[in-house]
Amino acid sequence: MLGSVVVFSMKNVHAMSCKEVSRLLSVKRDRPLTDEEELQLKNHLAICLYCRNFDGQLGVLAEMAKRFAVARDL
Ligand SMILES: [Zn+2]
What we know:
By secondary structure, the protein is mainly alpha-helical. It has one domain. The protein is built from four helices and no strands. The longest helix has 25 residues, at 49-73. The protein binds zinc ion. The site of zinc ion (ZN) has 7 residues, from helix 2 and helix 4.
């Protein structure tokens, strides 16, 4: 049952692995990325649908967390 994971192990994308990118996407919410990190992230997202989806999901989660925080303040 490895199917979907194996599809995205793109050896030709030497810059960054999906694992590294998902880590950067999380880091990005805590601190600004360096130019180097930002560039590699962009390059990877341009070609990797999986990580673009992941980025979108993080956005949704952040939005939900924000709403939750607001709701608690009331
Ligand atoms: Zn990726």
